[in-house]
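Give me the fold.
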Amino acid sequence: MQRFRLTTGVVLVLVLSSCAQSVDPVPAPADVVLKLETEGNRLRFYLGELIPVRYSYTAKTPGRYVWVGQSSTLAEGRSLEISCSPLAERVSSLPKARDVDSFAQMLQPPCDGEGIGGGIGGGCVDCDGELPLTTAALTFGVVPLNTYVRFRTPGTYTCEASSADITATSRDEKLRPALLVTSNPIVLTITNDPAWAHAAEIAYADAYDKLCGADDAAVHPSLQCFDVARRITYLDTVESLTIEVKAFDGRSHGWESGFWDAIQQSSYPQEALNLMASRMQQPDFQVSPMVLEWLASSELRLEVPDAFQTDTPATYHAQAVEKMRKYVRLLGSSLSRKNLVAISESAKTYRAFAGQTYCERQLLISTEEQDRVLTGLDIRP
């Protein structure tokens, strides 16, 4: 039987490595200015609160410099980044890529001469957009600072933005070096107020239920739902995690809440694992390979953190397989309770993993056990 491959981790690593730069870009001349500011110039925020910022470019010499939307086309180019001192955690849009890759290698070491493969696609809109800089500010709309950095502790932070998406070279030139631009610093005071956080959790959860609780994606005011959802994820408390897990059902609803990424990157990994293990078994939850892999790898990571730091992940092969078997069986035991919306994909995930060997001499779940689990289920193609 052809094995079921973990596809995500390797591809993410390849994407990240392909974007890596070997040397820093050349600093931009002083007449190119990158301005960073908070909306309303507010500088005090609560821990977990959405922090709205905007950034803009100007140039004292109009027409000499160009902003390039697809910064990767520039030599040493990169898009905007924000860093803070004392060090704040960088937010990644590709959570725990190395851990996912390591777990893939633990499950399926090179036992038969094959590698681990797969692919995911991506795209962007108006990637080739280019705009000349002038003395009039080229301003980008308000975005949450939280999408760049996460403050896990209160304190005073000095933050600045930098980018390498400006060039002085014509579009006709074969080699277009990027110029590194650094913004002015902004000083933020982040305070911890549990009473504010608790009130925010209640208000956001209520708003989310009223705006976004219906199954019909067509009735959702998507922008409002997205705004409320991301405010919930930024709180990063046990209570907000509980809200996220309850709202996440494993299915696509026509817009992205960000709850799944927040669950994976929660400051409370044990609670996230416990809540998701329970949520996965509920009738309305559609279990995907991604969720099942995360459950198994998260439990192993919590029990043996060193397993994801080693250069020889195959050392933990047996433990990884047992974790995978545990969660496949947990999924199997819940299939008879799944509703008509969740049953088909959940059963497909069960079959895909149950029938793997992972370099062993037996199936992960025996054929007899699979038959007992799947017999009598109302599974529609």
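The CA atoms of residues 243 and 293 lie 22 Å apart.
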